[in-house]
Amino acid sequence: MSGEAEKTERAYVYMVRCAGGQLYTGWTNDPASRLHAHKSGKGAKCTRALGAQRFAYLERCTDKSAALRREAALKKLTKAQKEALCAEWAEKNLPRLSLAPRADAAEILDITQYLDRKPKALSGGQRQRVAIGRAIVRDPAVFLMDEPLSNLDAKLRNQMRAEIIKLRQRINTTFIYVTHDQTEAMTLGDRIVIMKDGFIQQIGTPQEVFDHPANLFVAGFIGTPQMNFFDAKLVKNSDGKYAVAIDGINVELAEDKQARLSAKNVPEQDVTLGVRPDHIMLCADGVKGTVDVSELMGSSVHLHISTHGHDVVVIVPTNGNAAHFPMGSEVNMIFGGNVAHVFSKETEKNLEW
Predict the structure, then answer these.
(1) What is the 8-class DSSP label of residue 61?
(2) I want to staple 102 with a disulfide (CB 3.0 to 4.6 A). Which of 137, 218, 243, 257 is the partner?
(3) In whole angstroms, how large is the CA radius of gyration of the chain?
(4) DSSP per residue over 86-117, as a string?
(5) φ, ψ (nearest 5 deg) of residue 193
(6) 0.90 cut: is pTM over it?
(7) Cα(230)–Cα(36) distance, rounded to whole angstroms?
């Protein structure tokens, strides 16, 4: 968006030019002399009753939130004055503008105390919140947010994440949210599209993606700490049921996994076994490993265990009791057949799907 301002004896007129669209708009501080827009080809001419004074060509604005993104046309106004200008535009039937989100935007984004500041006096994080506010007040058909929380500190990022969830529920508008933070994806999304090198790896709800990762990339990307991987073998027991064999331990898979593997008639083969850190338990007899690092997290201890050339993370709940795992201590690990994921060594795809 770009704009120009022409000064007359008694009024300023801001002529805002945006890329393509349907909206004509202008503003003056003189109530007695209003702008009149007349459609003419691609744009409109704006005239007012001040002698023979004519004002410049005013092109059409769009219904997209990008129409309010740049500062050039309004750089001499404070944020409060811009809010007033938005209200003026609303009276001129600005498409799809909802007054309630505009009234709430500054409070939602915690920028009320900065409304009288000019853009150059705002920090990077504050400017980012202002950009989100501009999208909110426009009430577009679709919000496209490209890592909007990346410049915020951890506390404010958590607060803004919760506020975006509340905002989405209130305005009932589609959000397309781009992020590298899987926590944001899991907490904000109704559906997640996971991409790698420009290709879609999996589409699903957060729970579906977490419980049934389509391949090794998705399994390692979703979840904190990330999923552990072991070299194992998919075998069939004497009763024809599938199991995974690792370090002399044979774990029979759950019934739903049995059904999916049987339906695809998956043969016995070497596989990459995936198990999430909170699904592994310590036991008296299981997969053997050595503790390298013990991290106390308060309600749990994160153990980094070396086993068969892999670094495995195990989350051990403390349940209010002291937990002590000295470096170099030997432990045994086990897991249930309902939380085991088997991936092809060749294609890296989940063999169940």
Answers:
(1) B
(2) 137
(3) 29
(4) HHHHHHTT-TT--HHHHHHHHHHTT-GGGTTS
(5) -110, 115
(6) no
(7) 72
Contact 229, 221 (CB under 8 A): no
Cα distance between residue 51 and residue 197, in whole Å? 62
Please give the residue that has the higher pLDDT: either 237 or 156. 237
Contact 232, 244 (CB under 8 A): yes
Distance from C-alpha of 161 to C-alpha of 65, rounded to nearest angstrom? 20
Pairing of strands 142-146, 174-178: parallel
Residue 9 three-state SS: coil
Residue 27 has pLDDT above 80, yes or no: no
CA distances from 336 to 33, 75, 192, 236, 308 (A): 77, 61, 27, 17, 20
Structure tokens at 305: 């265990």
**Residues near 346 by Cβ (< 8 Å), separated by ≥ 6?**
none
35 touches 46 (CB < 8 A): yes
State yes or no: cis peptide before 225, omega within 30 of 0.
yes
Residue 188 · residue 182 · CB < 8 Å: no
Report the SS3 class of residue 87. helix
The predicted structure's pLDDT at residue 191 = 92
